[in-house]
Amino acid sequence: MSSKLSTLAIEVVETITALIDPTDLRSLRLVCRGLNEKTLRDFGLTNFATVQTDLSRKSLQRLQDISESEHLAFYVQYLHIKCADDGKLGRGLDWRRHPSGCLADEPNGANLLRDILSQKLLKCRSFHIHSYDEYQPPHETDCLIPSDAAGIILSIVAKAGLALRAFTIQCSHDGNGRLDTPRLQMPLSQTPDFVAAWSHIEELVLDYAMTVDQGVWVIHLIASAPRLRKLSLGFYEAETSFTTLLGSLHKLNRLEELSLRSANVTVENISTLLLNNCETLRSLTLRHVSMENDGTWATVLKNMKGQLPHLQNLLLFWLKQETNNRRVIFSKMTRYPVVPGSEDPGPDKRLRIERRRIESVSELIRLRYWGGGRRVVGVEYHGMGIDHVLSALADTVETT
Question: In this predicted structure, what is the pLDDT of residue 150?
Fold first, then answer.
């Protein structure tokens, strides 16, 4: 029996289904064939736009089943690779390794994933690998670690020519986990096929503890991405030379979002990087970033004023400066009036957030206090009055 709802135009049905939760949407699809067809787009985008896998035999079989469905494969855009509950990837498959620990050529599981991505899931060009700290990684042949997963994806990009849109490696330990360099298959990134495919990427997030020996590789990845719009980098062993190289990349001039964590910078190289992207930059996040060569954050904030017309989102947290890496605080920002009832607990129990109002700025600024005291170690702002906020921050920089 058909429903009167199924006689409505598909645009009207989609407007209605956008207002109901996924469980009700699944129930609605069972009413009749007409509704099943007219709700397919919302159903596909809600349930299959992002598909998660742990690269196990069972998980890859599910991915293959989705890829062979002409109705569902079209909607898969994002592959999220995350460990199973036991903290492992790739269970149930043989992952042969060289004595170095790197995967041997063409493991069956990697070949299956390549065929699925290159032949069936033609719109899946964004990848997110959830990582952890791989200090002294094992050489097990019955499972993978996230570094292996990253190497597999990058190998598929090189060999199948996947035109990526986004690539993310994100560590669960607040970005403090390392990856095993040999398993990332870095030499593949130098091949012409990889460079051609990689040139389409728009978002690159490497939110893990990048080591010095990975720096040249990361610079090459960035330099090979002229369409890059979002860049987020984390470091374990940071050198100011990396930020200098980053600022020297003339093709890196269209960033809309930039995030740096645990980096070492100078006034010159961070200012150059920001000004290179002055016409497009909308969001800037700096966490645990240290200023070298006796530079000051007040100077950087003053340099930014009037130069970033599109900047609307700013987060500064736990900055440092001076030769002994003294912590930067913005405690004088408390001179601005607090908004009653605006205090919130932060994501960490030692962190407290409070909203205050700067005159001439319509949006509120969020101050982050550490511990039980009044030391403001972080500032967050979203709005159009960025120059007023930059002036206020430059005038209140202190060290402790």
Answer: 95
Say what the pTM is.
Answer: 0.90
**Host H or E run for residue 344:** strand 344-345
Structure tokens at 217: 């590789």
**Which band of pLDDT confidence, cut at 50, 70 and 90, is reported for residue 237?**
confident
Report the Cα 45 to chain-centroid distance in Å. Answer: 21
| Phi, psi dihedrals of residue 351, rounded to the nearest 5° | -110, 140
Q: Is 62 left (phi over 0), alpha (psi -120 to 50) or beta?
A: alpha
Name the pairing type of β-strands 313-317 and 376-382: antiparallel
For residue 37, give both structure tokens: 């067809």
Phi, psi (degrees; rounded to nearest 5) at 104: -70, 165
Take residue 134 and report the two structure tokens written for it. 């791989």
Nearest to 253 by CA among 274, 232, 284: 274
Paired strand residues for 204 = 167, 231
Q: What is the mean pLDDT of residues 57-86?
A: 94
Express as a percent the part of the chain with pLDDT over 90. 67
